[in-house]
Write a structure and sequence with these properties.
By secondary structure, this protein is of the alpha+beta class. 33% of the residues lie in helices and 16% in strands. The chain has a three-stranded antiparallel beta sheet, with no helix packed on it. β3 and β4 form a beta hairpin. The chain starts with a strand and ends with a helix. The mean pLDDT is 87.
């Protein structure tokens, strides 16, 4: 699944993941694009990925979600609400709508 500059996918085992990586890197390279910041919860697969293509963090953010690749937990990070002295009802409703 591709959304703008994020590709999110899963495979059944490390061998499938390695084949997908090789195929996707080749296809995107042919289009003069570089797929990078690869992340996985599988150490065998990550060993196949060159260091410069790996995500630098164990927490991967995509589409408002955070994935901890170490614990394999996905969480939602709601936007921070900042209330000021002159906060209106409209501001509160707008902040609440962003949390859905």
């Amino acid at each position: 699944n591709t959304y703008v500059d994020n590709v999110i996918t899963g495979r059944n085992n490390p061998e499938e993941s390695k084949r997908y990586y090789d195929t996707a890197k080749s296809a995107f390279k042919a289009a003069s694009m570089n797929l990078r910041e690869w992340a996985s919860n599988d150490h065998d697969f990550l060993a196949h990925i060159p260091e410069e293509d790996r995500s630098k963090s164990d927490i991967v953010k995509c589409l408002g979600l955070q994935w901890n690749t170490t614990t394999d937990n996905i969480s939602l990070a709601p936007p921070r609400a900042t209330l000021e002295e002159s906060t209106t009802k409209r501001d509160v409703v707008r902040m609440a709508a962003r949390m859905n």
